[in-house]
Fold:
Amino acid sequence: MMEQAHLDQLCINTLRTLSIDAVQKAQSGHPGTPMDAAPTAYCLWQRFLKYDPQDPGWPNRDRFVLSAGHACALLYSLLHLSGVKAGSPSYPPGDRLAVTLDDLMTFRQAGSRCTGHPEHGWTSGVETTTGPLGQGAATSVGMAIAERWLAATYNRPGYDLFNHNVYALCSDGDIMEGVCSEAASLAAHLKLSNLCWIYDDNHISIEGSTSLTFTEDVAARFIAYGWNVARVSDANDLAALSAGYQAFLDTHDRPTLIVVQSHIGYGAPHKQDTREAHGEPLGAEEVRLAKEFYGCNPDAQFDIPEGVVAHFNAHLGRRGLGERTAWEALFSAYRTQYPDLADQIQQMQQRDLPAGWDAALPTFAADEKGVATRDSSGQVLNAIAARMPWLLGGSADLSPSTKTNLKFEFAGDFQEPGHEQNASYRGRNFHFGLREHAMCAIGNGMSLSKVRPYVSSFLIFTDYCRAALRLSAMMELPLISIWTHDSISLGEDGPTHQPIEQLASLRAMPGMLLLRPADANEVVQAWRVIMQLKDTPVCLVLTRQSVPTLDRSKYASASGVALGAYTVADSPDGKPDVLLLGTGSEVALCVSAYEQLAAEGIKARVVSMPSWQLFEKQPQEYRDKILPPGIRARVAVEEASVFGWERYTGFDGAILGMHTFGMSAPMKAVTQHFGFEPAHVVAAAKAQMAHHSS
Structure:
């Protein structure tokens, strides 16, 4: 027993000193939280976490999310000492650890697997990218939701394929962030008893004591949400920590918050200002004092005492290997009895599409009155989801408006089984409530668990969830975001709801694919693009108002959507005098202007540009074919900020867009007021031709 206690303390202190040395050598980082939270994380990993270091991608592993991403030196030290193997495609071929000692020694340096904050996909064992506080905690709710859905959908008697738990280590800063509150509220409503947040309550943020701004009773707040709350008065008490984790495992009707009292920079008693232990290296002298306090060699750097790695392997390693191999045997038997379900699980894990996923995609006949693209998208979504069981999602209280409700009989609503009659975790319609930011972070967590989620709201409300969208792009997650009410043409709701700068903002986000289809058939082709994405998030931007369904026997096929931009209508000789460029609902406006110009004998070309990003990926030859460099007379039309269009119009081209916010009035009055009418497009085209012919 004494030997066990000695090894436990030795491992904890090694986690601390490795973290201290990594930060000190980099002269950058946060040593304080790794020092105070080392026992909390160690106890979880060694005694409770279901995780095989030999296979960090095992589907039924427990998830450990470091929401306090600034404490990443602790996570990297855990990954190294636990012997977690490299399993990400980002590593070169070969057998190596996810985090080597050299990686720790090059913390926060170029090329190191130990980046300044944890980056999913770059370092195996990092379950999600964290750093912006609150994001990891909110994402963990999505992981817990995914587990509940997977278990309800695929488990069968005797085959509990999915029964893992999700843990998130949170800081004071996480708990302060609004997204954390949104996510915690929803987690309680859904009674996600597989979710455990560990609150490292050390009372310090960058500006100093949290008493400057944060004096609420956090435990009481979470009890009010409907969480189970456990308390540990001393982070160094492994028995109390174990009791807290066991209390979580014994709770089956709600999520659990474990409030762990700690002191930042524990073991550095000479620090007068604990803020330095939080956000700066300790300094050489303080490093020595801390190591002496821990009973470690003050002169050794990156020292791993004998027995530490073996002790991790004897507990976490041995337990995880046994649990993973037992699961694989269970899945093999499951495949024999339920081959179709097993195929679905494997397709999901590989982000593959099931055969026949597109068999029922609709086609839309020409219709001058047309249909709103949100409506045609709803039809397409339902046609695909009925044949792809793991396509699921919902909206932030707006599914009647975003048309994202799955209406086929077996779709159902995702709710805790006791919520109401027929409620089930198998449901595929999600109700996120008015929680846009949490919705997108939760979508990231679901995507990380390999289901195919979609989220939706009005385009204007992307302002509320940009941080989560940015992380989906950074992590290369194929999250589907559906944004409706895409322009000033939504009318009476006025400028508070009319998006202006949002299209430009999302186009500027690296790795984010934006699609703004022009009519119902472009919507179909947009969904074809979306469903084949494996590593790219997408923003599908749709109209509230009806738009004409173009006659594709007269105009070009909508299949050009896959290329990002294509010629919809052209001059008979293919040599236009002016180019009319548009996206979304404004393509129909360009087509109307094209017809008027043609009636006057003026040769024009209409180019639909649903995705600038896809267009930029095409060969230069194709781009020059669509937008011939020699034709400088160009008019771009979009009911949004003009920012960025000059790359296609040139600086002397015409851009009919928005330079102000919108206005509250019926749609026709709004579009007339701002000049979105065929006559203005025609006039701009003629002015461009005159300018470039002189």
Remarks:
- The longest strand covers residues 634-641.
- The chain has a mean pLDDT of 95.
- The radius of gyration is 28 Å.
